[in-house]
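A brief tutorial aside. Many learners find it easier to grasp structure tokens once they have seen a single protein encoded end to end. The record that follows does exactly this for 2OG-Fe(II) oxygenase. Read the sequence first, then the structure, and try to relate runs of similar tokens to stretches of the chain.
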Amino acid sequence: MGDPYAVDASSLRTNLPAAVEDERLAVPVIDIAALAPGAPAADRQRVIEQLRFACRDVGFFYCAGHGVPQQLLDALFSTTLDFLAKPTEYKQRIAMSNSRVFRGWFALGGELTSYRADWKEGIYFGEDLADNHPDVLAKKPMHGANQWPDVQDFPEYKQTVTTYMSVMTELGHTIMEGIAESLGLAPDFFRKAFTANPFTPFRLFHYPADPVAKHENGEERWGVGVHRDYGCLTVLSSPNIIGLEIELKTGEWVKARQIPGTFVVNIGDMLEVWTKGVVRAAPHRVKNVSNVNRITAPFFFDPNFDCMINPLDITFSDDGKTATAVTAKDTDLSSLTTNPSIRSLTFPLRYGDYILKKVQNNFPELEQMSLK
């Protein structure tokens, strides 16, 4: 079968159609405020139904009513832009090549998607662990300390990033509760089984202004090539969403809309695995054809790193209102999904092994360092 974690060559599609404006509003806006405790039952049920449609038929939605303070977002983006405006020599002080756990800054073109360089630079963060933490002492991959800019130049940055990650983790739990209910499961189903201690990579990307978005040889230049995300959810915040493009079930590509006060949320591979293709991890890409420098903050809410992943058989009760989920006896997904990342996987698999190989493919020059 070969390496099931490698990039599937069938995903390297060429001559894909250009994206169009989402005039039909194919990607829905969902106000999740009604998922909070004490909200009227009818309002909560309406949100659950909207999530059911978004997760099964689209794979993306705009998240309103999330309650994340605008001041926190402003501080995150303004300080990140200040750091990224520094000379390369300054940013190299926290280069990812200094880290064995994929933390720190990488230069423009330093990350690959499907073997091709992305036209972006960025910073990788994660749960910030001390040197004496058991996972660090055990040299668990992707577990360790973050790299931070000089505290004299950026005195509040560590606190801002740490606070943001904490807030987004709770938001991830809330959205996952709604998705569980949309599948007929108990709200805490995923938290009890798979996400009690979620793995939460956090990245900040800068896409430079690129009015032409073509290489010298005439090929299109992508901020990020076509891909799906790896875990449960991605929650994307950005002051300018321009450039994100989403593939619908029909094969049509649409441009993400700029909707103030919302995050863009999309489903990852593991939710598609658990539901045996019922929930959709949608392909997407980024092309910053504009005169605007674009910054984004994708937060990844993933299963526990050591979580063992198996497809689930979800069976509804006679009245269709509730469901139970058990490990599937038949775990062959090849006929249930077109997602090349998961069709050939062999189960059970540890989530940490899955994401580690994916990130190693993105940074092949750092692969051996990450194993030391």
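Self-check: The chain has nine helices and 19 strands. If you spotted this yourself, you are ready for the next section.
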